[in-house]
UniProtKB/TrEMBL annotation:
Keywords: Cytoplasm, Methyltransferase, Transferase. One of its GO terms (molecular function) is nucleic acid binding. One of its GO terms (cellular component) is cytoplasm. The gene is Eef1akmt1. The keyword Cytoplasm applies. It comes from Calyptomena viridis (Lesser green broadbill). Its main location: cytoplasm. This is EFMT1 methyltransferase. Pfam families: N6-adenineMlase (PF10237). One of its GO terms (biological process) is methylation. It is found in: Cytoplasm. Coiled coil: none annotated. It comes from the Eukaryota. The keyword DNA-binding does not apply.
Length: 214
């Protein structure tokens, strides 16, 4: 009987349905804003953070500050590598800088919209990099390992050391201070990075050069 089959279909509560409609409405509005503003594909928020990939975007202010620091540290005509730090990459692209070049090493293939500057990166294979990515070819590497574990930091450190000419800007949890010093020789800065959503773990920046973050 048709009635019996209908009983098996799970019904959403009116509350859940309303929340779902609100979510879709917000998404539509966001898409509408993107179109009406002649949407810039590089702006923060053009790609939504994916918590399942342990992605947490920086606040606009933090991303701007880190991007500015990276440009200053790289120098005129400098090369910057962003390792698992997409919101800094997006800020750098917003600047439309002629004085520096930048690439993004990222596990999330949605970032392939950035074309040749995107390099697929899995920290579990730290040196599985394209041949044209030459060793010690970046003036500064800014990295934000996706997980707060020594294993993740150690493997990401291999990538960082391969890429950088010397300067390193690392963003990770305050609890990783000892491991950061051990694997990369970096020291904690006074500047405290903030995320667009509050994280449970205290976050800090670490450098191995005289930076503007103190």
């Amino acid at each position: 009987k048709m009635d019996d089959a209908d009983d098996d279909i799970p019904q959403l509560s009116s509350h859940t349905l309303a929340a779902l409609q609100e979510f879709y409405l917000e998404q539509q509005q966001r898409e509408g804003m993107k179109t009406s503003q002649g949407f810039n594909q590089y702006s923060i928020g053009s790609i939504e953070e994916d918590w399942q990939l342990s992605q947490f975007w920086y606040s606009d202010e933090t991303a701007s500050c880190l991007a500015k620091e990276a440009v200053a540290a790289a120098g005129k005509g400098g090369k910057i590598a962003c390792v698992s730090a997409p919101s800094v990459y997006q800020k750098l692209k917003e600047q439309d800088g002629k004085d520096f070049s930048v690439c993004i090493l990222e596990y999330d293939r949605r970032f392939s919209v950035y074309g040749e500057e995107f390099i697929f990166y899995d920290y579990n294979q730290p040196l599985n990099l394209p041949e044209n990515l030459l060793p010690h070819s970046f003036d500064i590497v800014i990295a934000d390992p996706p997980y707060l574990s020594e294993e993740c930091l150690q493997k990401t450190a291999e990538t960082i050391k391969y890429l950088t000419k010397g300067k390193i800007l690392l963003c990770t949890g305050a609890i990783m201070e000892e491991q950061a010093a051990k694997h990369l020789g970096v020291k904690i800065c006074k500047f405290i990075p903030k995320h667009s959503r509050n994280l449970a773990n205290e976050f800090r920046c670490y450098v191995n050069y005289a930076s503007g973050l103190d």
